[in-house]
Amino acid sequence: MSMFRELLNRSRSMVGMTSLLAGLGVMSVLSLARIFAHAPDLTSSGTFGGAIGLATPVAMAGIAGLVSERAGVVNIGLQGMMVLGTWGGGYFGWHYGPWGALLGGAAFGALGGALHALNTIQFGVDHAISGVAINLLAPGVARFLSSIFFQGVDGGSLTDSPPVGNLGKLTMPFLAGGRIGSFSTPDIFGYLERRQIFLISDISGLCGGFLRDIATETVMLLSLIPLAAFVLWKTPFGLRLRSSGEKPSAADSLGVNVVGIRWIALITSGSIAGLGGAWLVINIGKYQQGQEGLRGFLGLASVIFGNWKPFGVFLGALLFQFTESLRMQLGDDPSRGFVFAVAIGLALFAAFQLFRKSKKVGLALIPASALLFVYILNVDRVDDKLSSTFPFLVTLLVLVFSSSRLRPPASIGLPWSRGKDS
Fold first, then answer.
1. pLDDT-based confidence at 8, cuts 50/70/90?
2. 182-186, 199-203, 264-268: which range is least confident on average?
3. How far apart are CA 38 and CA 32, in angstroms?
4. Are the C-beta atoms of 175 and 189 separated by less than 8 Å?
5. Average pLDDT of the chain?
6. What share of the chain in percent tops pLDDT 70?
7. 91-150, pLDDT tens digit by residue?
8. Transmembrane stretches, by residue range (predicted)?
9. Measured by CB atoms within 10 angstroms of the end CB, which terminus of the chain is less buried, N or C?
10. 368 vs 131: CA distance, rounded Å
């Protein structure tokens, strides 16, 4: 037993070391691109801070999908649950402020989760069909409710709620220049970022993005990620939930109420997705029709990228939204630095694949990276239309090249009823 624990601890330390080296590798590539492309905004605290904010609702959708799918139920309806969350956040935020927006978003998202549970668990509807139906139903429900409660109200309309308010922002003292009373503390990460030192300034920009002017609701919602990891992997309930997605018949034979666990998982999933929608409402100060964009689907992609693990989900969401943050930071001046970074990354990944004897993948990537290098060296400005596709191209490429290491729950999406072996 002690030998098994020692091996387990060693494997965990190896995974941690590999993750650290991979992170340093990514930051090194970005740092090189920043220097050679003269693009200081590529790794600025503003860009990273914006990416963290934009990644929050995507990560919430991802954690929502993770909880559902770990219990064995595919949740394509995340987008619709976020829509319901935005409307609930707008209505309750109008009446009770931003705290009410969070509670209202969670409650309305939970209704979407309960509907998905009713369809899939009680009536045996195909998981994908139920999710698509919720995605189609939710916008219509939100617009209908807006016509009843918002239209004709001061500050409201068919597509907007009255103002909701916000919870303010936080800055860490001493590390990021926060204040203690009337005293302004030093900004250590800001100083290092401005020095433009290879890798050190880029890591300082990343840390500054996490610690400077970060919205209170962002801190609150991101704290759900380690909480989800703890519950799923460190508690008896988490073990029961994961067993319901791996081998429900075995879990049922050991006395686990698989149906009850899946109901709880789906309602929780809807609540978390609804919180992501409420974040959007608080972030701009009111509900707006369509403000969720495609974040529910990006959240579903982050579940796959993160290999059904909470911190992997967050990294996926951060990666997907980094390009969008960079585009917003630069406005009408898309970053040559980012294309340069992608070209370097592709070249290194191609070399890595060739080293691993995956010659087909490596040989396919070398021309792509070469074309990007030629393009970036021969243009003074990246085309706006090309830059607008960056978030989706990055999402697609990441999913394609991460598919070989995926390990989804064994019984995900499979129909199950008590007494059936699956």
1. very low
2. 182-186
3. 10
4. yes
5. 86
6. 87
7. 999 999 999 999 999 999 999 999 999 999 999 999 999 999 999 999 999 999 999 999
8. 47-67, 74-93, 99-118, 130-150, 170-193, 214-233, 263-285, 297-323, 335-354, 361-377, 389-406
9. N
10. 36
Q: Angle 403-409-410 (CA atoms, 0-180°, nearest 5)?
A: 100
Query: And the tokens for 45?
Result: 């605290």
Among the ranges given (263-277, 300-314, 359-373), the one the predictor scored with the smallest mean pLDDT: 359-373
Fill in the amino acid letter for 95.
H
Identify the CA nearest to 44 among candidates 336, 326, 376.
326
Sign, Cα dihedral of 1, 20, 318, 341: negative
| Whether the Cβ atoms of residue 366 and residue 350 lie closer than 8 Å to each other | yes
CA end-to-end span of the chain:
30
pLDDT at site 344: 81
Specify the pLDDT at position 355.
Answer: 77
Q: Which of 332, 323, 325, 337 is nearest to 398 (CA)?
A: 323
